[in-house]
User: What shape does this take?
Amino acid sequence: MRISLNASALLGNPDVGQMRDHAAQAADQGFAGWWLAQTGLVDALTLFTALSGQTGNLELGTAVIPTYPRHPTMLAGQALTTQAVMGDQPLVLGIGLSHRPVIEDALGMSFDKPIRHLIDYLEVLNPLLETGAVDYDGEAFTAHMNTARPGNAPSVMVAALGEQALKAAGRRSDGTILWMVGPKTIAAHIAPVINQAATDAGRKAPRIMCSLPTCVTDDETAVREMMSEMFAIYGQLPSYRAMLDREGAAQPGDVAIVGSEEQVTAQLDALAAAGTTDFAALEFGRNDNENARTRALLMGRL
Assistant: This one.
């Protein structure tokens, strides 16, 4: 299981310079990847172009870009341009549907037929990334284009939790990006569904990237309670609530990676055994000591 960092906590007080330094340190320390959410007013792909040349061969990934606000033709152009600037440095274009309250209440858009939307999105996005040409008439998206590409295609992964989304991801992408999903759910639900869909489509085994808040601490109970409070929304959104229920977790903090060095090691081992191919830690120490212990343990897994 490859170990990466999820830098999305830095978006709470966005400082591009701080994010650049964080990514450069991740590269210097040998982490496999550096992931950033597309939320608020920081554009992840634009930031990735600024990191080019400063982060070696560190994989950069969006976790994730919501599909509804961006037409797939526009996102294809932005992703191809970003990959061209990055050259041979690997880019993962992580996309996802987001959630009905965000799309309908915050953006005033319809969240009708989300799986049809996702399938049509990928049917337009993928060929544009791969060849620069698409000829597709869909219910949610239509595109007829044949144009030159500025660079090679990045990898595409999909935030998928439900069965239909996992099947779409397995058939049409390189894997799934998970948040707030524990090892029991990965082993019994995520991995079997997406792996079978990829096999049926003749695709290579998909990546399963799991990201969770992570903290090495001597006070597991307090940290989990704090995480449950800070991430309470994920216990309420239906798609995440369903995953927590599958795991038997009452609160988001229950699936976080928290405890002593030995406990955190065992929790990471459980994720790997469940079928997780990539783990992106959202480091969540409450003080310098917990931050240092957390980073040291993660580096010991590289």
Summary: The chain has two domains: 1-159, 176-302. The first helix runs from residue 16 to 28. The domain at 1-159 is CATH 3.20.20.30 (TIM Barrel). The longest strand covers residues 207-216.
